[in-house]
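Supplementary Note 3. Input sequence used for the single-chain structure prediction.
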Amino acid sequence: MSRRNHTNVPDFILMGLTDAEEIQLLLFVLFLLIYLVTVLGNVGMILIIRLDLQLHTPMYFFLTHLSFLDLNYSTVITPKTLENLLSSIRYISFKGCFTQMYFFVFLAAAECFLLSSMAYDRYVAICNPLQYPLIMSTRLCRALVTGSYMIGFMDSSINVLCMSRLHYCDSNVIHHFFCDTSPILALSCTDTFDTEIMIFIVAGFTLTVSLITVAVSYVSILSTILKINSTSGKQKAFSTCASHLLGVTIFYGTMIFTYLKPSKSYSLGKDQVASVFYTIVIPMLNPLIYSLRNKEVKNALLRIIHRRDTAQKIK
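The predicted structure, written as discrete structure tokens, is reproduced below.
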């Protein structure tokens, strides 16, 4: 039986962030600028890593996929949000809503395990530097990335399958600016307990396992750094993982605040602010964090610019 046979409402309506026209225009300009910076930053990061051979290492291989995920992650949410900020009609079809939710969960779950893979990479680099090339082989790096995407695929498939079996007949108004799990569950006129438990288990497993991997990796890293005698050695070791640690803290902090709690504790104001942060702001911050705090990326950009200038002079 199709999903439309399980509901009495034709489409969903996204309420958005605010009804005030002045604030909507301000948010449109702000989100548009953030999205442009997100696209330029992540595409730029991917191109720099691809064009500079010195960055063809496991850490930057993972960083390429992180930029790819962030770019798509933002694109799934931001364009529709921008459209709704300029429109009085904020309809989204069932197919469109569940498609948005599917890719949102897929990309978010994949990013969780990609960040944990990057934490393991930093652990090997600092705690086992002599064996780093052997342990972090091309085969292992590809397996970790593939595993991240596969887990994202399974999480999103389970999530959407459970949600699509519910009846939606009480209301079609989503009190959010995109199709997220909690506000859609609130629209169901049937018992959602089993669905909530399943989604909670899947989301909890994804966040918990990836977070434990990150925590164990950084406890080992910290232990190793403290054993280094020289101050310069400690600073150098810490600088190699500072950017990743900052990115992980921001991403997991907002995710845990939003999702590891019952849907009945959903707060429109607080959860929307957190959602804006991890769906729109964080994809912009990641390339800035990894480029501004990373001398290798800066040097790679300078080398690319120098090669381009040299090639133009030769012509």
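The first helix runs from residue 21 to 51. Confidence is low (pLDDT under 50) at residues 1-6.
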